[in-house]
Write the structure tokens for this entry.
Amino acid sequence: MAAATTEPDLTPSRPLYDGKLGELYVIYLRHLVLMLLTLGWSRFWGRTRIRRYLWNHFAILGDRFEYRGRGIELMVGFVLALLMIAGWGGVMYLVWIYVFHEKPFASFGLFDIFSLSVALIGFPLAYVGHYAGLRYRLSRTRWRGIRCGMAGSAWRYGVSATFLTFANAITFQLLTPVVSVNLARPRIANTRFGSLPFVFSGGAGDIYGRYVGYYFLNIIAWLVALGIFFTAIGGAVGGLGISFTEEEILKLLTRPSLRAILLVAALAIGLYLVFSLLILPLRCWWQAYLFRYLVSHSRAGNVLFATAISTRQMWGFLVLNYLIVVLTLGLGWPWVMHRTLRLIAAELWLYGAPDGASIRQPTDLGPRYGEGLLDMFDVSGV
Amino acid sequence: MASMARFYDGETAQVHDVSVRTTTNELVIFRLADAGILARWPIGELAVLGDVQHEVTPPIVRKGFEARLVVDDPELSRQLASLVPQLAPLAGTRAPPVQRIAAFGATFAVLVGLFWLAVDYGTEYAAPLLPYSLQVKLGESVFDELTADKDECHGKAGLKALNDLANRLAKAADYPHEIAVHVMDGGPVNAFTLPGGILVFYSDLFEQAKDGAQVAGVMAHEIGHVVHYHPMKGLVRQYGIELLVKLVSGGYSDLLSTLASGGNVLLALRNGRAFERDADATGVKLLEKLEVRADGIASFFEQMLAKEPKDSAAVAGIWSSHPPTTERINATRRPSSGTPPFTDAEWKAVRNVCK
């Protein structure tokens, strides 16, 4: 006798993003004007307004997200981080006075000690800030009136991320799959929608084969790109019979003529084209694969996620967005945010719907203040 | 009045399609399916979260509760806004963005221009107004940093001679504060100025100088920096431009700051060259005012150029913090008339300040 089973509901759906670029620009330009008038202190409120707009124009299963963070919370978080750094400065001052000051072996100043120590603690603290900032944003995010949240320790994440990044650097990036998966796991698996935890079931072993292929293809692509570039320059210089004396080169560097500037710009574009044709597509290919893997190995209860994001789309996300920001001197930020949310809405698939009755409002309200460390180390996006 | 909206109870993630009805003192929320009452919210406790400029459908809440009522129907929103004063924000509309973008964009461009002018020209007037005690503190802390690995020289007579001349020159320029001269043992053949009237000489400069007039020339040049508050102006300009870049990028990206730092370095170097020209001219003027030999600046540069014929400042062009040396020699060349800046005993003490 067969047991009665029910087929899980796997109805596919995609998010909806219906923000308008013009409206986003109104909010952003207002934010920039206020930034100039307040010497930057309005940024906490500006960010909050932009988030409110973006969150509420993004919907899943017909229900829009809400962002309920407040500018004052971000400002208090920033001031607390500032005080923390000031406290650290005080500790370094005492170390300087009692250990190094007027000692013959101390061929460095207080500022050197402070800068070095901040650089050292800044690296792990940026990761701590990244995690804590994510926790803050999730705690201020609601869907269907239910708060999201994030468990886990930001400090543990900071230590783990620092260790993994360091280990990856000394092994010539061969640990990248381990780093990617082990940094994604706590961020995904600690995410909560109300009482519903997200689940991540990925493992670095699954993606190592693809990564090794990417790793060696990358080396070959670099060699080929450099070969093409130098052959092209050598060919152009040799073919035109151009030769430079030391003085001419110096003059070119110190008093560049308009022709020289245009030539350098043309060379830069050529370099960009060669590298963008060989190196960046490979990187985008790997990133798209990694992203697809991470998404498809995540779920929230009975809701499964998937994406078919392509190398070309990842190119648009990583490279074009970068160029937009740089070439517009920062004024392209709203466009980048708009493009990113449109990409997510187009490429993220959800299978199934959450069982609303079983998901409860969490009892904790999340952190009282947010993103201080993120702001301090300037690694914060929207 | 009855129409569709969505109700989230705030306890679970269930969605209820609802209709709403207002009475004189309540907003009643009914389940659409069976007309069962889901909530009765007192009118006085209603509020709207957010506004229509940022949210498509700002949720209605009962103050102090997690539940939300989201009204998608614009007509129903308008009706609720007209019936309940607290729900008035629901009636707002979004103005077409083009005009607002133009207005904010123009304001932004004007503010960037004003900020730039304030930083580039305002520092000319604002830097001297900074509390002098602050300038001294800043100068002293930078001095500690820069000279941490150097030995300071304490020859009393030499330091007195240097300080006397420095303060005479500063007084001639009506500079109201005391100048403090420090001498560090060794090289390079150089001197520099810090905020708060702090002058630092390296003793190699005294060994290389042909006579006291050359040291006086260098000192007059440094006093030129002091009386024009060049160190403070340079600092304020550099940080001002950095701040502007940060503000223009919306505080989101350090990417632009990195890109802009290259431009800022070039700007600082351009400022540096202008400051050097100012300091040369002022230095010569002050020496002439005191009727002290003013040929020292040009002759010191000539000596340096003879030693190193390739003029590094001219070679470096836009990357140099100083104008080309030949240009400076031509601008500061003066006859060797005037009284010597130091007596023989003073000059001897200056040369022996580190011994």
